[in-house]
Write a structure and sequence with these properties.
- The structure holds 2 protein chains of 2 kinds.
- By secondary structure, chain A is of the alpha/beta class.
- Chain A has one domain (44-262): Rossmann fold (3-Layer(aba) Sandwich).
- Chain A has helices at 20-28, 61-68, 90-93, 113-124, 128-142, 157-169, 187-204, 215-221, 239-246, 252-262; strands at residues 2-15, 31-45, 50-54, 76-81, 97-101, 175-179, 207-211, 224-229, 232-238.
- In chain A, the strands form 2 sheets. A 6-stranded mixed β-sheet of chain A has the order 5-6-7-3-8-9, with helices on both faces.
- The longest helix of chain A is centred in the C-terminal third of the chain and has 18 residues, at 187-204.
- The two termini of chain A are 32 Å apart.
- By secondary structure, chain B is mainly alpha-helical.
- Chain B has one domain (24-281).
- Chain B is 67% helix and 1% strand.
- Chain B has a two-stranded antiparallel ribbon with strand order 1-2.
- In chain B, β1 (74-75) and β2 form a beta hairpin.
- Chain B is globular and about 55 Å long.
- Chain B starts with 17 loop residues before the first helix and ends with a helix.
- Classes of the chains: A alpha/beta, B mainly alpha.
């Protein structure tokens, strides 16, 4: 159970104009721009739900993920995940979550994937029996086979993403955060990733929170959508409610683009 | 993967016991060392060239010390063999610390490309994760060179080797490595505030190695004070050397390296404050 109430976060960004004079001035007095990354965000996600977290770039998606995964402290508001405050009990909390960033690898670059998995097992201190059981299952579902003996740098993007998913699940997390997991993948790889996520959710009841710009991911996976813009939750509902809200026709991308326009996000 | 209704199945009974936790961390570190050695050896020619490069760069420093001592025979009362012993022990300590702790040298990069965020997403201790992430075996080149000079100098210093002398020498090496390691962590802690690396820290790391070729006392009283009280490099070099070479009989000088243990306090403080700042500003 994830319960978020009134989460707010501001960033202070240093600003200076261009040119020598501005550099000189900023050396003595720094001016800050305040950016409201999150503004009173509240939602609740039940165990085993799959939720699509969408919004334009810079809307506050990754700030939310960072706070929910315990990396970042919010300015105010509360968050309880399975009874824990993520940022206060980070080390206990991260045992229960898995995180996949589509744009960043968690595998050791020059090392065979299987070796990376062994290191991850030790970072989480997963008991040997659990580790081998999960690895067998993940290898089969994600068709890892030969990939385990391949250094991460030699994998194609699709192969790497399958390995990333496995790496994030070796410790058996109850919640999985996916940050643009299908970015840059070809059609086959996208389908494989989506199929796997669905299976994972069905078999193990893993809660999945997915941020993406790919509306087909949303359509294929999530019953529920959280739309965030300028740090605020603008819509929390099903896909059909989203279609209603955007009041129009066309494919999903067009609907979402119209929604962004309506909320003056774009 | 977790089955619903069994929330705590990931936490093994292992990690509740302190001794086996220490052991499993050691095993994690050992594994990381083995895996990274294998991966660095994969670029074989690059590995050997880097190793050779490391030997050659500090070889220049050795020649400098050697010719200086050939010309002047003694500095501040220390003989050529004394100075070379000093040179070798500092070099060995530095290269040991560098091999295992220089991962902190790349800390600005870890922060910038999100690798540090990934470490925060894992339950293992952060320092250990930074260590396991970046181990530079090519730095062993300096260790080898230091060891050779060490072996040359040992029989030539005017010391009657008792078990006490051997113990003080070992303590000196160990604690010198410790101080250099602390300096690397301190550097990383400061990076949390500045984001970019701070070159001035190199005065104490690389500088500590270069100037450490001679007993620190030759640089004057003020420098010696700073290296005694502020950054305790002299505690692990000059004072025990005084005792080893018979220039002092004070037990305080012999045990001075232990005083360097206190350097962990400012190091841990800066690291913790930095980490707190990082986790509240997100950058």
């Amino acid at each position: 159970m994830i319960e978020v109430r009134g989460l707010s976060k501001e960033y202070h960004v240093r600003r200076r104009g261009s040119g020598a004079a501005a550099v000189w001035r900023s050396f003595f007095s720094r001016s800050h721009d305040v950016i409201q990354a999150l503004d009173d965000v509240s939602f609740r996600i039940a165990d085993g739900e799959m939720v699509g977290y969408i919004g334009p770039n810079g809307a506050g998606k990754s700030s939310t993920i960072k706070i929910l995964s315990g990396i970042l402290w919010p300015d105010s508001g509360s968050c309880l995940i399975d009874g824990r405050v993520p940022w206060l009990e980070r080390r206990e909390h991260v045992r229960q979550i898995g995180v996949v960033f589509g744009q960043r690898s968690q595998l050791w670059w020059d090392v065979p994937v299987g070796d990376s998995f062994v290191l991850i097992r030790e970072l989480y201190q997963v008991p040997a029996a659990d580790f081998h059981r999960r690895l067998d299952e993940l290898s089969e579902l994600l068709d890892l086979g030969e990939l385990l003996r391949t250094p991460a740098r030699q994998l194609s993007l699709g192969q790497r993403m399958r390995c990333e998913l496995a790496a994030a699940l070796l410790h058996g997390p109850r919640i999985l955060f996916l940050d643009e997991p299908t970015i840059g993948l070809d059609a086959t790889a996208k389908l494989a990733v989506r199929h796997f996520i669905r299976e994972l959710n069905r078999e193990h009841g893993t809660t999945v929170i997915l941020t993406t710009h790919d509306m087909q991911d949303i359509e294929a996976l999530t019953g529920r959508i959280l739309l965030i813009g300028r740090g605020r939750i603008l819509l929390d509902g099903s896909l059909s409610e989203l279609k209603q809200a955007s009041a129009g026709h066309g494919n999903l991308d067009e609907l979402v683009a119209r929604l962004y326009q309506r909320y003056e996000l774009a | 993967m977790s089955e619903p209704g069994q929330p705590s199945r990931t936490s093994s009974p292992v990690h509740s016991r302190a001794s086996s936790r220490g052991f499993s961390r050691l095993r994690l570190y050992g594994h990381a060392v083995a895996i990274q050695l294998a991966s660095q050896l994969e670029y074989r020619s690059s590995f050997w060239l880097m190793l050779l490069g490391q030997v050659l760069t500090s070889f220049g420093a050795l020649l400098g010390v050697w010719f200086m001592m050939e010309r002047f025979h003694s500095v501040a009362g220390f003989t050529q063999a004394d100075v070379l012993l000093c040179f070798a022990s500092v070099l060995m300590a530095f290269s040991l610390a560098e091999t295992f702790f220089r991962g902190f040298d790349q800390f600005p990069a870890l922060l910038a490309d999100g690798r540090f965020d990934r470490m925060l997403l894992r339950p293992a201790p952060l320092i250990l994760q930074v260590l396991t992430g970046t181990i530079e075996f090519t730095r062993f080149g300096r260790l080898v060179q230091g060891f050779i000079v060490f072996c040359w100098a040992l029989p030539r210093v005017a010391v009657v080797w008792t078990p006490g002398h051997v113990a003080v020498l070992a303590l000196m090496l160990l604690m010198n490595t410790f101080v250099f390691a602390c300096l690397f962590v301190l550097y990383a802690g400061i990076c949390f505030f500045t984001i970019e690396g701070l070159e001035f820290m190199n005065i104490f790391t690389d500088g500590g190695r270069e100037f450490g070729a001679y007993p620190y006392a030759i640089y004057g009283k003020r420098v010696l004070q700073i290296l005694t009280c502020l950054v305790p490099l002299a505690l692990v070099q000059y004072y025990p050397l005084l005792w080893l070479t018979g220039r002092s009989t004070s037990i305080l000088h012999a045990l001075a390296p232990l005083g360097a243990l206190f350097f962990i306090l400012p190091t841990a403080l800066v690291w913790r404050l930095g980490l707190r700042r990082y986790r509240s500003t997100g950058s």
